[in-house]
Write a structure and sequence with these properties.
This protein has about 120 residues and is mainly alpha-helical. The protein contains 4 helices and no strands. It starts with a helix and ends with a helix.
């Protein structure tokens, strides 16, 4: 739901002509939560036998489809600005995910090396 929240807030913030209260219908919020949850479920693609590249492409296409469903269901206009926001948010989210994964891998590798060194000492 993080992706949906980011997109939703960016669209509201960047396309609103008013400063102050923005009336958001409750059904719009539910549609965003449902589509965001489904986008999160698309990460199952990375646990399949697909190559990382194919999983990424299918995830991007599925995410764009759910984003479009969300936009059309809420009667929000899809234009260059909203597509730019989508692409920017998608890229930023993937950058954060990749950096987090790499940090975790480095940490795990350090722990393995440390454990292996300790095993050698005790032999």
């Amino acid at each position: 739901m993080r992706f949906g929240t980011i997109i939703y807030l960016l669209i509201l913030g960047m396309t609103s002509n008013e400063v102050g209260d923005i009336a958001v219908p409750i059904n719009s919020v539910f549609i965003v939560f449902i589509c965001s949850g489904l986008i999160g479920e698309l990460s199952f693609l990375f646990k399949t036998d697909l190559s990382y590249f194919l999983a990424f492409i299918f995830h991007l296409i599925g995410t764009l489809a759910l984003f479009s469903i969300m936009m059309f269901s809420n009667n929000w206009l899809i234009n260059w600005q909203t597509l730019f926001i989508f692409i920017l948010a998608y890229a930023m989210i993937w950058l954060v995910i990749r950096l987090t994964q790499e940090r975790d891998i480095r940490r795990i590798n350090r722990q393995i090396k440390k454990r292996n060194k300790q095993k050698v000492k005790f032999k």
